[in-house]
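Morning!

As promised:
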Amino acid sequence: MIFDWYKIFNLTEWLEEGLVSRKLSVSLDGKGETELLICQGNETSIQVDDVFLPINFGGKNPWSFSGYGVYLDENNDVWLGFEVEE
Amino acid sequence: MLNGIAPVLIFTIKNNSKALSPVFNALESVPLIGKDIAGVVAGIPIPLYLDERITGLYVENEARNIDIETKPEQRFDDKSPYFYQRALNSSVSVNIIASKSSLLLSVLLAIMDMIVPKIVSRNYSISYFNGSTLILNGLLQGFNTVTGNDDDLVRITLQIQKEHSTPDITSQILGKVTGAIPGLS
């Protein structure tokens, strides 16, 4: 599967803030304004367009569902992906 | 009062003709504030005196609003939340009563129709002076009129927003990387 990936935030910095959730409104190149919700429970997740994306869930990285993906890179940056046709 | 006689509304419509801009930039000659008004939107100034006897337009009341959105972000471990604030608007709402037969009422309605296509480009400005209430180079936030059947009056509500600078949106667009994972095409 091929995705258009966008770097959203750094997981280490997010965990240091100790927040429960944060709503972001970001401008994505080619997609426009998108609202995201970063949630913190036992693990960190992103909710976008009513799709829930747990980061590195069960060791699966990237985690993808229903055309959306989330990836944690070696710098602990979290990328949000939208599947594109190959 | 700054205006001296009655409340004053000044609409400045940007004149795209470079040759005529200096000619129509008449507001620059107004003492103290002329350059502030004319410098931002060089164009055709159209003043309206809101005086019942002169123009048939009367300011019944006005209100000043500043709205701020406050968002708390809850944190773990009983720590105090972060509070983020942003200004939603800083505006003046003017309620005007006009006689149906007032010529300046027709002018005001025509100016509103002229401004609507310029909302996005911001090639216009609205200034309002009434005693301690002063808005320079404001933007239109809302306009509505109510015409009654029992009298010959038209009630107008004009909301003027203090102008804020346009945010640099291009610097906030996140670029994309295409591939199975970022960095791997």
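Chain B is about 15% helix and 45% strand.

Hope this helps with the figure draft.
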